[in-house]
């Protein structure tokens, strides 16, 4: 039996009091008030990331756990749809096996939209039968984000049948409805969708609460919505979670959900409201097997310096220390990688784009810190009848190469990447995870793409002076190093892109969302340009 003493946060009553608690056989045995308890530390339930794709950390679950527990995370609600799009059911099962090597309480969902749309090539396709099989797996406990919101709103029977599989099992159903408001939102919620993490404005969030939905306030490496949404914590405290959605390793080694609690408190949010959004709210909604520091609960808790010194000093899961003073105590774990990658090296001439006399081209506009893109119809720069990248106009080629079979690449134009001589490429390309690249010239583009292909997945930067890559042998999404190694490699590649002129805070994260066809407004997949508003492939030439 172990005893702990200090200030204790009771998320059931909302009180913070001096006290002691005992732990035996992995559970909280007792909690008592004690005025003599130390005042220089605070114990509270462990933290929960209420929506994350672990694959986006570039780490397998066991390595992700080593980094996340340092910041007080004891549980995650994890959608494995990245690896599912690449490797199908076998990929989800691989994630579950990897998670078994860590005490972190990872609740996996059954991906509901694989592929995200029928307008791209992925490595798998899930219908109601496949989703039902996943929902019956040990380790799967909810239906992952329903991204095909047009199908739900339009009453598509196949999509509604997928949702019905979760309803029949009385499992939570996650949503994904960027920009959906009004009657469409009410229809979406009425179908059984219970949460959304895609809100970017306070009005959107309020509308979801009015429909009875929970809102996961997102602050990830690409989408950063905390500043817009934190007032919802004060308005509707019981309807809020915290999540990161996608968090790259360079951010994960700095902070996780603990950072959002600090920011909320600094903004004047009641500390207990902020703590509940990271503990009680998601634990109760998703019925997670994580404790709330109550007698009889699993002993999942953390120690911080105090409400106004909210830095994690220690993390315990089932009564065992898993991180102390910024150091991971969990051992590394490895299982053989899984992958699907069939693309062959590409030649420069395959990246050519024939010009259309006098026609403008629908150009994607990358937005720093967001998943959305804008659109502007521009006259391209043309040389010898071919459209070329024009760094002087920050008008660069964007390319998507099918990783699953040899096929002609899709080529478009994009602004706001700012590269002068080089190119960035990666096989982390939501959600089908083909190879996506942006570059200042075809030579650099081909070199960066081929660096990724040669590793059967990875991230790369190439310029006339250098080519540098980081292999991701696990489904082309995750590496075999730890978080700190991945963070170093990621920072090195980011620095190369920025030195070449890229102004984006996280060039590779932004790059990875350019093919995501379910986030507005103009995107590009392996089959061409996609207008999210009309939910259809479109001709980029404006004749």
From TrEMBL:
<dbReference type="GO" id="GO:0006146">
    <property type="term" value="P:adenine catabolic process"/>
</dbReference>
<keyword id="KW-0464">Manganese</keyword>
<dbReference type="InterPro" id="IPR006680">
    <property type="entry name" value="Amidohydro-rel"/>
</dbReference>
<dbReference type="InterPro" id="IPR026912">
    <property type="entry name" value="Adenine_deam_C"/>
</dbReference>
<dbReference type="InterPro" id="IPR032466">
    <property type="entry name" value="Metal_Hydrolase"/>
</dbReference>
<dbReference type="InterPro" id="IPR006679">
    <property type="entry name" value="Adenine_deam"/>
</dbReference>
<comment type="similarity">
    <text>Belongs to the metallo-dependent hydrolases superfamily. Adenine deaminase family.</text>
</comment>
<dbReference type="GO" id="GO:0000034">
    <property type="term" value="F:adenine deaminase activity"/>
</dbReference>
<feature type="domain" description="Amidohydrolase-related">
    <location>
        <begin position="43"/>
        <end position="322"/>
    </location>
</feature>
<dbReference type="Pfam" id="PF13382">
    <property type="entry name" value="Adenine_deam_C"/>
</dbReference>
<protein>
    <recommendedName>
        <fullName>Adenine deaminase</fullName>
        <ecNumber>3.5.4.2</ecNumber>
    </recommendedName>
</protein>
<keyword id="KW-0378">Hydrolase</keyword>
<feature type="domain" description="Adenine deaminase C-terminal">
    <location>
        <begin position="370"/>
        <end position="535"/>
    </location>
</feature>
<dbReference type="Pfam" id="PF01979">
    <property type="entry name" value="Amidohydro_1"/>
</dbReference>
């Amino acid at each position: 039996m172990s005893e702990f003493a200090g200030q204790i946060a009771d998320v059931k009553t909302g009180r913070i009091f001096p006290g002691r608690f005992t732990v035996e056989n992995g559970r909280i045995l007792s909690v008592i008030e004690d005025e003599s308890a130390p005042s220089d530390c605070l114990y509270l339930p462990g933290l929960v990331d209420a929506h994350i794709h672990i694959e986006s950390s570039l780490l397998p679950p066991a390595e992700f756990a080593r980094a996340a527990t340092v910041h007080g995370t004891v549980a995650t609600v994890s959608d494995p749809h990245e690896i599912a799009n690449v490797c199908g059911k076998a990929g989800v099962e691989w994630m579950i096996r990897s998670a078994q090597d860590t005490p972190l309480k990872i609740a996996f969902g059954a991906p509901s939209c694989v592929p995200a749309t029928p307008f791209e090539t992925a490595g798998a396709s899930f219908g109601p039968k496949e989703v039902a099989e996943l929902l019956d797996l040990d380790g799967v406990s909810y239906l992952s984000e329903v991204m095909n919101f047009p199908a739900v709103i339009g009453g598509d029977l196949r999509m509604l049948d997928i949702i019905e599989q979760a309803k029949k099992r009385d499992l939570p159903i996650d949503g994904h409805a960027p920009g959906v408001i009004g009657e469409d939102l009410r229809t979406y919620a009425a179908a059984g969708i219970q949460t959304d993490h895609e809100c970017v404005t306070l009005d959107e969030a309020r509308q979801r609460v009015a429909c009875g939905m929970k809102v996961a306030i997102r602050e990830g490496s690409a989408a950063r919505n905390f500043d817009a949404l934190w007032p919802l914590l004060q308005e509707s405290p019981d309807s809020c979670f915290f999540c990161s959605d996608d968090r790259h390793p360079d951010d994960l080694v700095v902070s996780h959900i603990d950072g959002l609690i600090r920011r909320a408190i600094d903004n004047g949010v009641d500390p207990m409201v902020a703590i509940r959004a990271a503990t009680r709210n998601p634990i109760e909604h998703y019925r997670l097997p994580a404790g709330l520091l109550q007698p009889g609960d699993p002993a999942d808790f953390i120690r911080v310096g105090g409400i106004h010194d909210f830095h994690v000093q220690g993390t315990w899961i089932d009564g065992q220390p898993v991180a102390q003073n910024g150091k991971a105590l969990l051992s590394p774990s490895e299982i053989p990688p899984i992958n699907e990658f069939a693309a062959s090296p590409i030649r420069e001439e395959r990246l050519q784009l024939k010009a259309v006399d006098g026609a403008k081209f629908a150009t994607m506009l990358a937005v720093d810190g967001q998943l959305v893109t804008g659109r502007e119809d521009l006259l391209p720069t043309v040389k010898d009848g071919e459209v070329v990248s024009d760094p002087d106009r920050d008008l660069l080629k964007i390319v998507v190469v099918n990783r699953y079979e040899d096929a002609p690449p899709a080529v478009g134009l994009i602004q706001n990447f700012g590269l002068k001589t080089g190119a960035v490429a990666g096989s982390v390309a939501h959600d089908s995870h083909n190879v996506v690249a942006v570059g200042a010239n075809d030579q650099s583009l081909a070199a960066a793409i081929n660096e990724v292909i040669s590793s059967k997945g990875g991230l790369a930067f190439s310029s006339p002076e250098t080519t540098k890559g980081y292999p991701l042998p696990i489904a082309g999404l995750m590496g075999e190093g730890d978080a700190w190694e991945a963070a170093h490699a990621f920072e090195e590649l980011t620095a190369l892109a920025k030195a070449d002129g890229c102004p984006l805070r996280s060039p590779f994260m932004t790059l990875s969302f350019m093919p995501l066809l379910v986030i507005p407004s103009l995107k590009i997949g392996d089959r061409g340009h996609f207008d999210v508003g009309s939910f259809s492939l479109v001709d980029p030439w404006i004749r």
